[in-house]
Design a protein that fits this description.
By secondary structure, this protein is mainly α. About 85% of the residues lie in helices and about 0% in strands. It has one domain (about 1-190). Helix 3 crosses helix 6 (about 115-130).
Length: about 200
């Protein structure tokens, strides 16, 4: 029964984390950063993502209720943050939060690896399938995301400097589109009154 519940949680969580979709964004955000520092960033992003996602499973509903925050509010705030990051790169060529100490936590750990989709999916699935399978599925999917991010050095070497810069710009454009989608969904939810 546990394994069946785990698989029922794993698949939607895999889609929510979207490890493959994060890779070009990671490459764009870490363009020009040496491989050793990239590994530190991956480590920090995974720890942040795990801490936030697991903490959210246990405390999310209570925190939101206490603060009067809805999932839609969270989506709008996360979307605005991502849009600012993407706009800085596209408009000025400057990277946002380019320090190894911070980029892993924000925006990689949250809201890219663990964003509103993962958090809301986790809250729904824990009610349906239990805490154990949900937490395990979250951990496995975040670790899979880390394994995918570790392939970025290979892709960077393969593409070279011009290719990496092109991927960086495309990734920033995708990031801006994701941000607009998050803001749109959040605002739609606020207007219609759905959570």
């Amino acid at each position: 029964m546990f394994f069946k519940n785990f698989m029922l949680v794993f698949v939607p969580m895999f889609v929510a984390v979207d490890a493959i979709g994060i890779l070009p964004l990671f490459m764009g955000l870490t363009e020009g950063i040496v491989p050793a520092d990239r590994r530190k960033i991956i480590h920090q992003s995974l720890l942040t993502a795990l801490f936030v996602a697991i903490g959210f499973v246990f405390l999310g509903k209570s925190i939101f209720r206490l603060m009067g925050v809805t999932v839609n509010d969270f989506m709008v705030a996360g979307g605005i943050l991502l849009f600012i990051i993407a706009t800085l790169d596209l408009a000025s060529g400057r990277k946002f939060a380019r320090t190894v100490e911070t980029i892993g936590a924000v925006p990689l750990g949250v809201p890219l690896i663990v964003g509103p989709a993962v958090l809301t999916t986790g809250l729904m699935l824990v009610d349906l399938y239990g805490t154990g399978p949900t937490v395990l599925a979250i951990v496995v999917n975040i670790l899979l995301a880390g394994a995918v991010l570790r392939t970025a050095d290979f892709w960077t070497r393969l593409l070279g400097q011009p290719g990496s810069q092109a991927v960086s710009k495309v990734a920033s454009l995708i990031l801006a589109a994701i941000a607009v989608m998050m803001i749109r969904r959040g605002l739609t939810g606020i207007i219609t009154g759905s959570n």
